[in-house]
Amino acid sequence: QVQLAESGGGLVQAGGSLRLSCAASGTIHSINNMGWYRRQAPGKQRELVAVVTSAGSTDYAASVKGRFTISKDNARNTVALQMNSLKPEDTGVYYCYLASPPWAGPKWGQGTQVTVSS
Question: Does 30 have pLDDT greater than 90?
């Protein structure tokens, strides 16, 4: 049984920074993808924010490129999202995910709230 534990998030003013962390536990394939999705409003679809593979390849949503940085520790099965220059439109619930192996269905964290005030 895979579990994801998220930490970080909170309230910050526009232009500020936050760091999200996620630790995965359980049986995890050595080849996996981890990343973050967010839901910006209730009823809105979750959207990909950033993903990193176990090989270190990364991909970002266009809206966060240059502001957010994703990093992964394969030995510890953790992923972090450093969010800088935050904007009010970054507000939402951020969900950590793990696809282990990458072609398997994702596992999700419980979500952590990020609120950026203008």
Answer: no
